[in-house]
Model the fold of this input.
Amino acid sequence: MRAMRRIQGKGKAGEELGSRSIFAEARKRGRITSDVYIASALMEYHCYKDPSATKIFERGAKLFPQDENFALEYLKHLIDINDIINARAVFETTARRFASDPETVQKAKPIFAFLHEYESRYGDLVQVINLENRMRELFPEDPSLDRFSHRYTTPTFDPVYVRPVLSPSQTQPKTLHAGVKPEIQTSPAPGQHDMSFSSPKRPYPSEDFDYDSDRPRKFVRAESPLKAAQGRRLDQQKRGQAINGQVTSHYKPQGSPAPLPREVVQLLNNIPHASAYHLPRLSPEKMVDLIRRTDIPASPSQIPLPANARGLGTAQSGVNAYGGAYR
Done:
């Protein structure tokens, strides 16, 4: 048929030469196999776009009802010519015929797989789910994950075996620090996954890892200060409490710094803000140095009480005692 098509074409009606005459003569001489019907129908469709290709497939479907390869090619042809209604009808007829006999159930698997691929690309989700439910009943030994991944599988992409990129750092090459020898990579044991390569997280550094000098170090945080009554209670507990003659706490509170003299505070309050200056601004270093070198008289709170006034309990006696110091 192929040779005569190249020499004489498809031929005319009543002529003995041509690809059609060879196919008709082969049918008269005996029952031919299904692949001859498939070749003749596809030749009519691809070479001449003749509607007789569908008729040849219809004739072959009656002659070879148990041939799953012919049914699959017939289904592909109907999808190619965009005859979706007849394609679904042929699928239902063939699927029911094969599913009715337990011995021929496996013959329906390639037909289901082809229609599932078509529905996953161009059909509705409801049709895909209904088709998967039927496949789950007919082929319970097949894992459901393969059917689910088959919805998005292409000739160059398989969602089950492709590692998703969750972070841009996964695409960057891994660099080794100075002094670290590269480890020899070994393949994981059968049934195990190598999590060091598939995980998007960074590996935990070992104790002997050589850090760079410019890398920030970790410091221990100080204890957060407590507030109000809770802080006072803990402060009292930390003070020395003797139990059976032993001190249970060695906490020594630190004294607060001495307040500034009143004259220094008054001087600092009288200094105007820096934005008010039109001349060269005040130098804070020189001001601190001036206060440090100036002899400021002691305030009354810093003058010790005389010996004859330490036992007095009234405020007036304290004032009289300080009077001598002021004089």
About this structure: The chain is about 45% helix and 0% strand. The CA atoms of residues 259 and 280 lie 30 Å apart. Residues 1-64 form one domain.
